């Protein structure tokens, strides 16, 4: 049984035409899906709440000055400095032991010292 080569060519041409039509349909579908994938609430009619947790981070419009925050080097700054001769001295004497609670009436008074570099005296705890 001999097969006519023209029938094979006609069948192949019909197959190619079907495939070309299918390719065109798929190209249109891909273009629609790409357009839909590129949509977000900023370029479509969807509400902003539909964005979910994938919202872009807010961008600041401030221009950076290049300086670090806080006091700049060379600036004298402002502070309440220590005085060499204070107006008055206050002696703090604890009345009871902070460890056991016994009375410290007969003990010698404590004098607060300012360690180098500190503005305020360290808290002293008196124990028996």
The share of residues in extended strands comes to under 5%
Helix content: 25-40%
Helix segment count? 1
Order of helices and strands: H
Mean pLDDT across every amino acid position: 78
Please outline the major beta sheet.
none
Low-confidence stretches: 117-122
Radius of gyration: 43 Å
3D structure, described in words:
The protein has 128 residues and is an all-alpha fold. It contains one helix and no strands. The chain has one helix at 5-37. The radius of gyration is 43 Å and the shape is rod-shaped. 0% of the residues are buried.
What descriptors fit this protein?
1 helix; rod-shaped; mainly alpha; single chain; 128 residues
Brief write-up:
This protein has 128 residues and is mostly helical. The chain contains one helix and no strands.
Q: What's the structural blueprint in terms of helices and strands?
A:
Elements: H1 5-37
